[in-house]
C-alpha cells in the first residue's frame, strides 16, 4: 500500500437502521486482498463485529453491493452483510443479545478496511481506512409517551403530524421487559406504535402483576381511542411468545379486531381460550424436553412438539377474520416456528402469507 491513500465511503453516512447503505473502497491496488470489518459497542459495553474478505477489481475498487465476500462472517454478494452477520467479538461474555435501549441515540458503526484477509487480530493491526456511520431507530419529530392508563405499562410512539395514522400493538416475546426499539422504528415509518410490557411485570410491592386477556384488550382500546389513530387500521405484531398472544387475541377476543396480524417466529399452539398462565402451565409440563447445543445454549423448541392433533390445544386459525403474515426463522431454536407454520398452512382462511428464512435479520435487510 506504499504511496497510496485508499478512500472508504459509506453512503448514507447517517440513516435509519432499516435502510441500506453503500460501502465502497477506492484507490486500492488492483487485485489486492482486503478485509472490511464493521464494529460497534452496545450500550452494555460489549463489542459486536462482522467482516468480509474481498479482492479489489482491475480499477482498484471494492463495492460491497456488487462484489462477493470470499469468506469471513458472510460469503457472496451481501450488501448488508456487515450488519446482519454481526456477532460478539471473540472472548465476549456468553449469552449476549443485542437490544437497543435508548432509541433516541444512534448506533455508531465503525467500518474499517484492513490489508489482507483477516479473521482475528483486528485490534493489533491498524486499518488502512476507517469511517464511522450512524444508524438510528428514531426519526426526527417522533414523540414518546408513557402509558399507564387501564393498568398498562407501555410506551406509545407517535409520528409527527396530525394523523390519523395506522397503528400497531407491538408484543415482544418471553424475554419480558419493555422493549421499544421496534415501536420507535415503526413510528419513524408512519405508524403509531404501542410497545407493551406483559411478561415479568410486578406490582409496586414486588408481587407478579396479573396479566390476563383484559390487559391486552385494554392496550388495543388505548390505541383505538387515541385521537391520532385511525381506529379501523390497527395491526398486532407479535414475536416469539407474542405470536401466541397475537393469534389468541385475534381469534377469541370480542374487543380486539385487528386489521391484520404479523407473527414472527412463533406458534399457534396454546390451550383454546386459555390465559397466559394456562400457556405457561402447558409448557411447564414438557420442560423435560429441553436440550442444549454444543455451546451449551438451551433449546426450547421441543417443548411444543410434536404438533398436537387435538384442536383444543391450538388456536382455531380458521376463525381469523383478517390477513395474516407469518415470518418464520427456520433456524429458530426457541419455538417450533417452521412446524407450526406448516400446520397453519393446512388451514384455509381469508388471507395468509408465509415468509421463511434461515436468518430473519438478513432477509429484512433485503426486502
From TrEMBL:
Q: Where is the Acyl-CoA thioester hydrolase/bile acid-CoA amino acid N-acetyltransferase domain?
A: 18-148
Q: Which GO terms describe its biological process?
A: acyl-CoA metabolic process; fatty acid metabolic process
Coiled-coil annotation reads: none
Q: Where is the BAAT/Acyl-CoA thioester hydrolase C-terminal domain?
A: 211-345
Q: Which GO terms describe its molecular function?
A: fatty acyl-CoA hydrolase activity
Query: According to its UniProt record, what is one Pfam family this protein matches?
Result: BAAT_C
Q: Write down the PANTHER family for this protein, in alphabetical order.
A: ACYL-COA THIOESTERASE 17-RELATED, ACYL-COENZYME A THIOESTERASE-RELATED
Record family assignment: Belongs to the C/M/P thioester hydrolase family.
The entry's protein name is: Peroxisomal acyl-CoA thioesterase 2b like 3
Which organism does this record belong to? Answer: Silurus asotus
Amino acid at each position: 500500500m506504499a504511496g497510496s491513500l485508499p478512500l472508504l465511503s459509506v453512503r448514507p453516512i447517517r440513516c435509519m437502521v432499516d435502510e441500506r447503505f453503500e460501502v465502497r473502497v477506492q484507490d486500492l491496488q488492483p487485485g489486492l486482498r482486503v478485509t472490511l470489518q464493521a464494529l460497534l459497542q452496545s450500550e452494555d459495553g460489549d463489542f459486536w463485529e462482522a467482516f468480509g474478505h474481498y479482492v479489489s477489481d482491475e480499477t482498484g475498487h471494492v463495492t460491497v453491493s456488487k462484489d462477493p465476500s470470499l469468506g469471513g462472517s458472510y460469503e457472496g454478494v451481501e450488501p448488508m452483510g456487515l450488519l446482519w452477520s454481526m456477532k460478539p467479538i471473540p472472548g465476549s461474555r456468553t449469552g449476549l443479545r443485542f437490544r437497543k435501549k435508548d432509541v433516541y441515540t444512534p448506533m455508531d458503526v465503525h467500518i474499517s478496511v484492513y490489508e489482507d484477509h483477516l479473521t482475528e487480530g483486528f485490534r493489533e493491526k491498524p486499518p488502512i481506512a476507517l469511517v464511522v456511520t450512524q444508524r438510528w431507530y428514531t426519526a426526527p419529530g417522533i414523540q414518546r409517551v408513557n402509558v399507564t392508563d387501564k393498568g398498562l405499562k407501555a410506551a406509545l410512539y407517535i409520528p409527527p403530524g396530525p394523523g390519523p395514522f395506522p397503528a400497531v400493538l407491538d408484543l415482544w416475546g418471553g424475554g419480558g421487559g419493555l422493549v421499544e426499539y421496534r415501536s420507535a422504528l415503526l413510528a419513524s415509518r408512519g405508524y403509531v406504535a404501542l410497545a407493551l410490557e406483559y411478561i415479568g411485570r410486578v406490582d409496586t410491592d414486588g408481587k407478579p402483576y396479573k396479566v390476563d386477556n383484559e390487559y391486552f384488550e385494554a392496550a388495543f382500546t388505548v390505541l383505538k381511542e387515541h385521537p391520532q389513530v385511525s381506529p379501523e387500521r390497527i395491526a398486532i405484531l407479535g414475536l416469539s411468545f407474542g405470536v401466541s398472544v397475537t393469534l389468541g387475541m385475534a381469534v377469541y377476543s370480542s374487543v380486539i379486531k385487528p386489521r391484520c396480524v404479523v407473527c414472527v417466529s412463533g406458534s399457534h399452539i396454546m390451550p383454546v381460550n386459555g390465559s397466559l398462565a394456562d400457556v405457561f402451565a402447558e409448557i411447564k409440563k414438557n420442560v423435560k424436553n429441553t436440550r442444549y447445543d454444543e455451546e451449551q445454549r438451551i433449546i426450547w423448541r421441543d417443548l411444543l412438539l410434536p404438533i398436537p392433533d387435538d384442536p383444543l390445544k391450538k388456536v382455531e386459525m380458521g376463525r381469523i377474520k383478517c390477513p395474516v403474515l407469518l415470518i418464520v426463522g427456520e433456524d429458530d431454536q426457541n419455538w417450533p416456528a417452521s412446524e407450526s407454520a406448516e400446520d397453519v398452512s393446512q388451514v384455509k382462511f381469508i388471507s395468509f402469507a408465509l415468509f421463511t428464512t434461515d436468518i430473519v435479520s438478513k432477509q429484512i435487510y433485503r426486502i
